[in-house]
């Protein structure tokens, strides 16, 4: 471990001013991602600003009927919160599909949003990685890229965002609230994470000095017709090869509204407006689901080891839409798998 300074922020304004006055500093919440990256020398912050004492650990109903979730709410507390279980069970399921019980007990909402990719080369200082060292090249293109992206890639980077929680937040159309030296702002979840382009080192549309304060959910939670499917190498404690979150609103057997997002396939949770629109007014049928999956995957591109993900994603989308339409979410059982 390389030496670093440490300061504990006493309130939100203190956190922002400590950060503004400390070039090269990083916020630390649960530390489950950042400390690993520091131990491996992938990240070398000059100073850690500890957020653990900030009053950002509440889940509160909003006047508009939604929920405001503090950035320091632990993943476990959020997944088991009665309002989340009742109104946003897709979010609960997605969180419980991630990591392990011990990690979820430590991991925060803000840290989950900003967790970094699990691309093996990003962690291996002996290999070229544009995300770790801009301009160095990308060892994953042409390398072992089984876990890497098939959508929204660039010549500079084919990494994926590894979060489960964020895939559900994409379907729920959450808003991220942040504050910084220039004041408060709200960022739609769809605009929060970035595609790699030629700046893969920038993963979110957030300035280094900005603090995430909360995530807000609108009232619509798809509590009747939803699912979260995660396909991975082990049943538990593994990142997604492909995951799918779905929320459907039905009118009899006809689809009134459908939203779905893929995880494990792109640098951000992946939604496709054309694929969702194609389902509106259709019967909830295998044929309609297969057609929309084809639209969703039409621009997918494999890189050798990960090409299998294209078919896997197509089948996962059809299965997830089927489960959601039937009101039989597979992910209910995930809660029993610690
Ligand atoms: C072995 C292992 C397996 C895992 N498996 C999964 C999985 O299957 N699915 C999954 O989704 N996740 C998985 N994770 C990742 C885990 O969910 C994240 O590590 C966790 O959510 C990060 O939260 P944290 O509070 O510990 O973040 P930290 O490590 O404290 O911080 C992460 C980043 O966020 C920044 N940050 C934190 N809070 C804020 C804030 N409020 N404002 C601005 N910046 C902030 C930090 O500066 C840092 O850059 C796994 C992790 C491990 C170690
Ligand atoms: S895919 Fe991205 S994170 Fe992985 S080696 Fe290439 S540049 Fe680095």
Please tag this protein with its features.
alpha+beta, 11 strands, 29% helix, binds flavin-adenine dinucleotide, binds iron/sulfur cluster
Notes on the structure:
By secondary structure, the chain is of the alpha+beta class. The strands form three sheets. It has a five-stranded antiparallel β-sheet. The chain has a three-stranded parallel β-sheet with strand order 1-3-2, with helices on one face. It has helices at residues 12-20, 34-39, 75-79, 82-87, 89-96, 101-106, 109-113, 120-123, 165-172, 189-192, 273-277, 286-297, 308-326, and strands at 5-8, 25-28, 47-50, 59-61, 67-70, 175-180, 183-188, 211-217, 226-231, 242-251, 254-263. The chain starts with a strand and ends in a 12-residue tail after the last helix. Strand 4 (59-61) and strand 5 form a beta hairpin. It contains 13 helices and eleven strands. 29% of the residues lie in helices and 19% in strands. The structure holds flavin-adenine dinucleotide and iron/sulfur cluster. Iron/sulfur cluster (SF4) is lined by residues 117, 119, 121-122, 129-131, 138-140, 148, 157-159, 200. The site of flavin-adenine dinucleotide has 30 residues, from strand 2, helix 2, helix 6, helix 7 and strand 8.
User: What is the makeup of the main sheet?
Assistant: 5 strands, antiparallel
Write down how many β-strands occur, each being a DSSP E stretch of 2 or more residues.
Answer: 11
Large-scale geometry: globular
Instruction: Name the beta content range.
Output: 15-25%
List the total number of helices. Answer: 13
Order of helices and strands: EHEHEEEHHHHHHHEEHEEEEHHH
Mean pLDDT: 96
> What percent of residues adopt helix (DSSP H or I)?
25-40%
Named once each, the bound ligands are: flavin-adenine dinucleotide, iron/sulfur cluster
Structural class: alpha+beta
Distance between the termini: 31 Å
Low-confidence stretches at least 5 residues in length (pLDDT < 50)? 332-338
C-alpha-based Rg, rounded? 20 Å
Q: Going across the major beta sheet, what is the strand order?
A: 4-5-8-6-7
């Amino acid at each position: 471990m390389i030496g670093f300074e440490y300061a504990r922020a006493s309130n939100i304004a203190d956190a922002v001013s400590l950060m503004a006055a400390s070039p090269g500093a990083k916020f630390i919440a649960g530390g489950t991602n950042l400390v690993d990256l520091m131990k491996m020398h992938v990240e070398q912050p000059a100073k850690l600003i500890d957020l653990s004492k900030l009053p950002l650990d509440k889940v509160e109903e909003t006047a508009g009927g939604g929920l405001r979730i503090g950035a320091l709410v632990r993943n476990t507390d959020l997944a088991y919160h009665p309002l989340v279980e009742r109104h946003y069970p897709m979010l609960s399921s997605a969180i419980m599909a991630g990591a392990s019980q011990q990690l979820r007990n430590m991991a925060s909402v803000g840290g989950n949003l900003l967790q970094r990719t699990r691309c093996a080369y990003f962690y291996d200082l002996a290999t070229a990685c544009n995300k770790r060292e801009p301009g160095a090249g990308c060892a994953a293109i042409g390398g072992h890229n089984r876990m890497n992206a098939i959508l929204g890639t660039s010549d500079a980077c084919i990494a994926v965002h590894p979060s489960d929680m964020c895939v559900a937040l994409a379907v729920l159309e959450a808003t991220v609230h942040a504050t910084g030296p220039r004041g408060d702002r709200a960022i739609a979840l769809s605009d929060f994470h970035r595609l790699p382009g030629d700046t893969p080192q920038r993963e979110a549309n957030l300035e280094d000095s900005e603090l995430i304060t909360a995530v807000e959910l609108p009232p619509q939670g798809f509590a009747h017709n939803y699912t979260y499917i995660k396909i991975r190498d082990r049943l538990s404690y593994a990142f997604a090869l492909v995951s799918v979150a779905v929320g459907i609103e039905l009118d009899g057997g006809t689809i009134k509204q459908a939203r779905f997002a893929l995880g494990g396939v792109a640098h951000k949770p992946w939604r496709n407006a054309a694929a969702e629109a194609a389902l509106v007014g259709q019967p909830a049928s295998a044929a309609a689901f297969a057609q929309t999956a084809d639209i969703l995957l039409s621009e997918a591109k494999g890189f050798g080891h990960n090409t299998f993900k294209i078919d896997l994603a197509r089948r996962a989308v059809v299965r997830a839409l089927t489960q959601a339409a039937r009101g039989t979410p597979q992910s209910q059982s995930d809660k029993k798998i610690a």
